Amino acid sequence: MVKRRVGISFIAISTILIAVNYLSEAIGGAPVGNSISTLSLLLLLAGLCYLSWGEYEEYKKGTRHSGK
After folding, report:
1. Could you give the CA distance from residue 23 to residue 27 in angstroms, rounded to a whole number?
2. Separation between Cα atoms, residue 66 and residue 68, nearest integer Å
3. How confident is the model at residue 65 (pLDDT cuts 50, 70, 90)?
């Protein structure tokens, strides 16, 4: 359950960083930079990995107990 929460948190932070990049470009006319884009992509991938890992563990735990 904790891995799912961490994954969702990483995805949320990634979404916020992407929004900040687009909003700063719309307001100021210049993008913040590639560092935020790279960081948001890494956080998105980390979030998806954690979310998948948490789901896999729940699936594995559910199939192990269903045989009783």
Report:
1. 6
2. 6
3. low
The pLDDT-based confidence of 61 (bands split at 50, 70, 90) is: confident
> Tens digits of per-residue pLDDT, 20-55?
888 888 888 776 777 788 899 999 999 999 999 999
Domain spans of the chain?
Answer: 2-65
Do the Cβ atoms of 23 and 36 come closer than 8 Å? no
* 47 contacts: CB under 8 Å, gap ≥ 6: 6, 7, 8, 9, 10, 11, 14
- Element at 68 (helix H, strand E): none
Give the 3-state secondary structure of residue 6.
Answer: helix
